[in-house]
Write a structure and sequence with these properties.
Length: 274
């Protein structure tokens, strides 16, 4: 049985590597096509777990239309993702409401820009850290696309087979097994889509996200966020939710000494801040 299980794992790993290599080749072809249409200066940062693009940058592509107000940049961002579908593999229908932000970079000698952020979800279920940021100049020309969204989510089912209460019990049991401590609390289970690693490949998994903690008086709380597979109850991964760190050092700033205003007779000087 162990030999059969090992062969099964090796088989799945080989399939994952083959798919990633195929997508890498497809992404290179898509980049060549994009460069042919928009200029050879464009570059891609690839995701090693998918072979698809994580970031497209380095060039400037003509605007699909001239934006007349901030809200117009949201439509331009969706159009940019449709045009780069072969590079990123993102279904635009999974991207929700856009947040448009003006960047007044002209104040520091650059040029004003706009960035548009779109969050990814399926049937109202959010993708963990699934966002896309598209950067434009003020005239609407595309400057870069950066994505942490998941690819190929068409037809993804958001119906869990494992209930929230069961997932909570599984997360608490995993916490106790790993930390040898009884948890004192857990957050409400939230249904999410997690990009889980399968061999060397990242794939979408429907999961319950639960923050499990051990809190005692006079001690630092111990906490981890667990992602429990909503189809089979497997623990996909965990991450610390309580962090400890020290902040130390000396911070200085330029300020006018004493209580007099900043004048030629009382210029600013470097001072240690309290």
């Amino acid at each position: 049985m162990k030999t059969r299980a090992l062969l099964h794992v090796l088989f799945l790993s080989c399939i994952s590597v083959s798919i990633a290599e195929a997508q890498k080749g497809s992404s290179a072809s898509a980049l060549a096509s994009w460069q042919s249409a928009h200029g050879p200066e464009w570059r891609v940062v690839a995701d090693p777990e998918t072979g698809l693009a994580r970031m497209l940058y380095g060039g400037s592509a003509t605007a699909a239309s001239v934006p007349r107000e901030d809200a117009d940049f949201a439509g331009l961002a969706r159009r940019a993702l449709e045009d780069t579908r072969e590079l990123f593999g993102i279904d635009v229908a999974t991207l929700g409401q856009a947040r448009v932000q003006f960047l007044p970079l002209g104040q520091i000698g650059s040029s004003d820009k706009y960035t548009v952020r779109l969050k990814q979800s399926v049937a109202g279920v959010p993708v963990v850290a699934g966002v896309v940021d598209v950067l434009f100049d003020a005239s609407g020309r595309r400057l870069s696309v950066h994505s942490t969204a998941l690819a190929d989510l068409e037809g993804f089912s958001a119906d869990p087979a494992v209930g929230a209460e069961t997932a909570d019990a599984l997360a608490r049991a995993q916490f106790q097994a790993e930390e040898r401590l009884e948890p004192t609390s857990s957050s409400a289970a939230e249904l999410v889509i997690e990009g889980a690693r399968v061999g060397k490949r990242r794939e979408a998994r429907l999961a319950w996200q639960i923050d499990v903690r051990r809190e005692e008086d006079a001690t630092v709380p111990l906490g981890f966020v667990y992602w429990i597979d909503a189809l089979d109850g497997q623990v996909l991964r965990r991450a610390r939710s309580v962090h400890e760190f020290d902040v130390h050092g000396t911070v200085s700033s330029h300020a006018s000494p004493g209580v007099l205003p900043d004048t030629s007779g009382n210029p600013e000087s470097a001072q240690v801040l309290r």
